[in-house]
Amino acid sequence: MFVDSVDSDIAPSGTLLGLLQRGRGDGxxxxxxxxxxxxxxxLRQCVLHDxxxxxQIEHRSLYYARLHMELDASLDDxxxxxxxxxxxxxxxxxxxxxxGLALSVLGHLASYENAGATRLLRRYATSGANxxxxxxxxxxxxxxxxxxxxxxxVLSRFPHTAExxxxxxxxxxxxxxxxxxxxxxxxxxxxxxxxxLRRVREAGxxxxxxxxxxxxxxxxxxxxREVLDWAQDGYEQHPRVSREAAAARCLSAVAAPEDRAExxxxxxxxxxxARAAALRHLAGHGDPDALDLIELAAAExxxxxxxxxxxxxxxxxxxxxxxxxxxxxxxxxxxxxxxLTTVAAxxxxxxxxxxxxxxVLGALRRTVREEGPDSDELWxxxxxxxxxxxxxxxxxxxxxxxxxxxxQLRGRAAGALAxxxxxxxxxxxxxxxxxxxxxxxxxxxxxxxxxxERVVERLRRLAxxxxxxxxxxxxxxxxxxxxxxxxxxx
Length: 490
What we know:
mainly alpha
């Protein structure tokens, strides 16, 4: 039996809400066939309560915006959510999680010329806690005149004090989209505003120069010992400062062949951060003792040392690393740390050959069975069975596709199924044309069989949709070209 997802915030995959939360293409198709009230309730739940495991890499906004238009939904619920009393509380530090998805949906609706969505974004940009997000959405969609009108309200958030000017400089510097700030700085109708922005920009540049001038850390002339001491010093601070990766990069610049003995001693030593930095450096430079040191460190009780060893091995791409991975994967159960054998299987998934297919498939099945369909360790294993063309992996890939709450992992499963499952083109590939992830839609555009009458119509709509990503439209046009792909059939 496979382990099911234990995320209590995600509904079962067989329900309409569960499909929409996962961003599956079947979610849109089922919502359009369901009673409108039920579909609207499920859509509202998703937009106002972000279901994504990682909002920074998973996409839902265009998916929900398209369904919002298909259902001719009102903006009232989104407006009520954005301007709820909790938005103004001092504890609104999680405002990105609370309002980010709703603002992104409004942004896509604005790109479809929904004037109400544009008005809501403008209003929230002038009064909401997550105003930077709303401003970024407007920056790529609103007209110059509309953006210029927001300047006085946005700048009034920052008092005319040294602290306020510093916060204003940071906001302008860190803005994801600089267009509104440029318009405000060049607005001839508001010279005082333009002068203030020019002044704080100059002050911000000077402060950055000062920080760079007085930066603490490795400098030219440091020795290997000084770099290792710097890493260990960060580890011993309270709160702890992680410098292992940075120290490893510094070692690449300062370490010479005659320093190898000192680095080997550090990689076997008791100072955790220094050991981790030395391990990363030795593995990155293919030292002949690195693999033995990694195997030794992976069994250490120190999480810093063990994790550094595993990360160092995962980055290796040498033939010796692949050979050692085969040895670790085939070792008797319990003789090596479980995490080490998992990373070894991931190495084979990325760099192995046909002879490693059984080991990669075994690791995939074991990970799903023990950790469920949402484990991060599945990502390289799913890619691996696809790359190696392991056809008997199709059942477990289908399970991952259906059950995972991660739309990114589902997309990887779809890509692997395209390479291993003959039924993919007429099955999951069709629903993938409505998926929330652009990479998944691109795979579907390439593989979906046109025996289903919905496929060609969907391809045409994607080709004409101004909000669709370029990669998807490129794949779609390849299928719609006369004599190749969708119009000609498969």
